């Protein structure tokens, strides 16, 4: 985070932080060492506590926990998409 702040970045978004990582981030916040805002979304498998408590925003606005990351299907780039039928290859021929 110090490197991010040195570059002038004012916030980081983590769209799938585990509760274990969030607890570590909360400890850093409690120690006063967060140097910019952090927005957190937790994976849906770990979202029960967030759903029960509702959004969590620190009084100084540096730690914002209110998102839930849901995976419905992947992407082609990460090879996580559920390709159930083959995609025909498109071949471009230059004439």
Topology:
Elements (H helix, E strand, L loop, with lengths): L1 H5 L4 E5 L3 H12 L6 E7 L4 H6 L2 E2 L5 E7 L26
Parallel strand pairs: 1-2, 2-4
Antiparallel strand pairs: 3-4
Description:
24% of the residues lie in helices and 22% in strands. The protein contains 3 helices and 4 strands; from the N terminus they run H-E-H-E-H-E-E.
Question: Topology as H/E string?
Answer: HEHEHEE
Helix/strand structural class: alpha/beta
Number of strands: 4
- Provide the helix percentage: 10-25%
Rg over CA atoms: 19 Å
Strand content: 15-25%
Query: Mind describing the biggest β-sheet?
Result: 4 strands, mixed
What is the overall shape?
flat
Poorly predicted sequence stretches spanning 5 or more consecutive residues:
none
| CA(first)-CA(last) distance | 53 Å
Mean pLDDT, to the nearest integer, reads: 85
Q: Biggest sheet, strands in spatial order? A: 1-2-4-3
Number of helices: 3
Supply database-style keywords:
95 residues, alpha/beta, four-stranded mixed beta sheet, 3 helices, 4 strands, 22% strand, flat
Short synopsis of the structure:
The protein is of the alpha/beta class and 95 residues long. It is 24% helix and 22% strand. The longest helix has 12 residues, at 19-30.
């Amino acid at each position: 985070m110090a490197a991010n702040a040195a570059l002038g970045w004012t916030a980081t978004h983590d769209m799938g932080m585990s509760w274990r990582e969030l607890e570590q981030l909360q400890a850093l916040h409690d120690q006063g060492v967060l140097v910019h805002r952090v927005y957190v979304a937790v994976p849906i498998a770990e979202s029960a506590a967030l759903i029960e408590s509702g959004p969590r925003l620190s009084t100084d606005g540096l730690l914002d926990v209110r998102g839930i990351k849901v995976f419905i299907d992947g992407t082609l780039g990460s090879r996580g998409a559920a390709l159930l039928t083959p995609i025909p290859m498109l071949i471009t021929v230059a004439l």
